[in-house]
Amino acid sequence: MEMLDSLTIHTRKELTSYIMNRLFSIMQAKTMPTFPSYLIETYCLLTSISEIDQHEETKTWSHLIQISKIHSWNYLFSLLEIYSYRLHRINSANQMQLLRQLFNKSIVSQINHIQLYSFMENTALKILYGFNCFEFIAFCTVRPKIVDETFLPSDSEELYKIFIYTLARATHITGTEALSSEQYVHWVKEILKEIKNLNNNLAWPSFTLQCFPPIISEFYQTNTKKETNHQQLKTSVDEEYRRWKSITNDNDRIKHFTSQGTPPLIYCLLYKMLLDNENIPQVSYKILDKIGVKSLSNHLRTFADFLVLEFANLVGGSHVSKSKEAVNDLIWKCHVVTLDKLLLCLALRSFEGNEAQVCFFIIQLLTVKNPDVKNRVNDFVKENSPEHWKQKNWNEMQQNFLKKYPEKYYFDHLQDVNNLGNAMNIPPIFSNICLRILPVFDIIIHRLIEMLSCGNDFVSNFVDTLLNEYGCLYKFHSYPITFLYNTLHYYEINLKEKTKLKKKLVFTIINAFKDFRPKNWSISEPFMNYCQKNNDEEWNPGSEYFKFLVGRFVDTLSSQSKCPFSMTDYRFNEFSNIQSHALYVTCVEILALPGKPSDISNQLINVVTNSHKNISRQDIELWINAIGLIFTALPESYSSILKERFVELLKNSRTFVGKNFFHIFDFKNSHANFYENDMCYTLALLHSYWFHGTFGQLCLMPQFIKEKIKPIVQTEEQLILVCYFVGPFLQRLQSERTKCIIAIAHELYQMLDTVDKKCSNLYHIDTICDLFYHFKYRFTGNLLQKYIDERIDKLRPELQQKLRFLSQISDDSVSG
Length: 816
What we know:
By secondary structure, the chain is mainly α. The protein is 65% helix and 0% strand. It contains 46 helices and no strands. The radius of gyration is 31 Å and the shape is elongated. It starts with a helix and ends with a helix. The relative contact order is 0.05.
């Protein structure tokens, strides 16, 4: 890497272009079974360099269509490995474009290669579940049609569910779900309808629907397919198994079990064969090949349903053990299904109640209590480093691992492999079962957290055990901090009372990097010490801790030299800069703290309002800015406390004394002259919060003014304070959300009418009127003309005279 960094930009571009041409010539000539590892590693390091990555990335993936024409599936597999494990921070538009290229009908229709197709689905899973929420929402809102027939294969129920999960999480975290506008409702419903047209089999358990934003939850509550008839499924499996045993000729078996209209039960039959005979006949592989890899997905879902039915009716440990071994043999001995695909299918089924628990009990048997998985993970973690750009022998380690744990597919068991083009395994460059299973673990953990609402101890115990066994694998996660942030933010309500679970989750994933990152690379030392305590005593951090937490973020924002985080190569980091890293690790720590959101939020606010004397006066704006940023990245339950503090101060009439109170609201001058107060600090924090706020958070301002502020405003001073509050955001609202300005102006006219009736004297009429003129001539125009005319006509004559140019009331009527 040091040598590549020493090259000039021009040289790096030329070298990248040469490697690309070399790779493409290999694809066309088919001179090698796969790309040379040295070329791939060099190319991956070059594309990490910022000035050439976007250009070369676009150039690389445009060749996917050409690859499909020459049927070089092994090269496609290698390109997908590069995309999954070596390219960093690809924007949502490019990733969505890859999905469209990847699942284009001209490509998908030709593929019947179990290894390639499974990895295509795994790549799509990683892309979909790893989308940046803000990029994803921005992409969705500007694209009139995000989903089409080439977006995902129509039979891939799991991938469509992952897309819905991503949409739900993105709308929640960005605050978009708070919008009730027709535009938001329209584009969300359009996406859901498009997906329903492509795949009408999506069903969700109630505990998942409870976590979805209301619009998505309501859509699927009214558009859910009927549940599987378990008794009918059991009868069908028994009948088909009897038919299998009654047919003695292999050709007749192939003809019957691959004919159109035959129930999708092949995996169920193989499972019963293993229970009875501990092996499956060779003809099974020919049947699987003829059914085709895409159709086998439906067979796998039926098998998942059948497994849950079987395990729910098992009595005694010996029966459970025998059934577990049969499923295990399907994966590791017979190689007819991959572990990651089976786990994903099980995790995303729509089971309720006891059946859901049985489903995750099966997942637990296949993972936590399975030496086939544990041995692979332990050896992989022990021999490899997540800092692949520093590991010079990655390819050697990968090949040794695959020799010890070969990844076979069912065609290897056929003697007549020459007639089957899918028989040969594609030698992986970067991938293996340990890396492929990692995004599936993400989904399993999220589904278990959703089940917490069912109040079952099994869920918490399973998460705890899963993290104990495989938490070390998370050092290879592409987005560990983002995963923690998304989990703690999206499932905030589910995790509200689960302090131990939050602590365990954060500590396990952060601690996985202990041998590769400095001690305080993310979470603070006080929090890590709290995590390591085994007792159940809750930690109650004081004001000094919160000052340290915010101060660490302030130092990161203000100066690289004072930055408390270790500098790292952000070309290979999940964040593009250290400031983003600092923000998200700070929010992860806050979200994982024990205690109520209200108490934590008050502590954050008090860092400025109560402890400002211990902060350098020249840096106070940096601290306010930092706290505002933190609140924008936290759930509404945290930021709402900041708004409540403002409302409480607004109610306090003692805050406004005398006729000259403008200095109370002016933070900059009051701070410079050493007579600052709670009001100016709180107002400054609110301004910081909404300046940095997301589009969804900004759109909540009219609702906040209408429901919380307007009922309080009775005096001239309160009205002016509200004007101080909304004034700085008018320009942003005009460019991003004009309807919000109209709504705010509407509320301000109502508040003016109230103040006019409640106050006998108005001392600052000119100031108030100036703002209303500014509203009309700069922002609202004639959009509120009729409403303004009605309001002004009811005001006192002095106000009517001052505001006469806002309305169409004649001068005679005003003077009269």
